[in-house]
Amino acid sequence: MKIACIASAACAAIILCALALLPPRVCFADGNNHAFVLGSSSADCVEYKPRANCEMERLFLKDVCGESAEYADTDIEGYLQKFGGRVLFCETAGDSINYYCSAKLPYSVQIKGQTVNLQICVRENGVKLGTPIIFGGY
Q1: Starting at the edge strand that comes first in sequence, how are the strands of the sheet with 86-93 ordered?
Q2: pTM for this model (two decimals)
Q3: 23 pLDDT band (50/70/90 cuts)?
Q4: What's the rounded Cα separation, in Å, for the pair 84 and 105?
């Protein structure tokens, strides 16, 4: 009985240490209003908004195919530098400018024959970043 308790405690400690040492699996951990996109194709995607700790909740999500977060800072060059990105093309829609970019991020889609994995949507009140693109609007 005593050995089983010690073994269980050791296993729990190993799992907790592994979780603490794993690299973060969240692209925009420093953003606000974080959301993950779950699904296997754009036709069946749903948006999931974490309730508390987005990094911890991400560990338990399956079929993550994208994510997004909002920022107050509108420094496009800073975001491009942070993610090793470059602008492929832009679109203006209503009160926003959308930059479709190639960046060092894990998710991607093909748009206009180009591999896009970062969308930066700039509005008067802030910025929303999405990888590979922003799902669900902004």
Answers
A1: 46-48, 32-38, 64-71, 126-131, 118-123, 96-102, 86-93
A2: 0.78
A3: very low
A4: 9
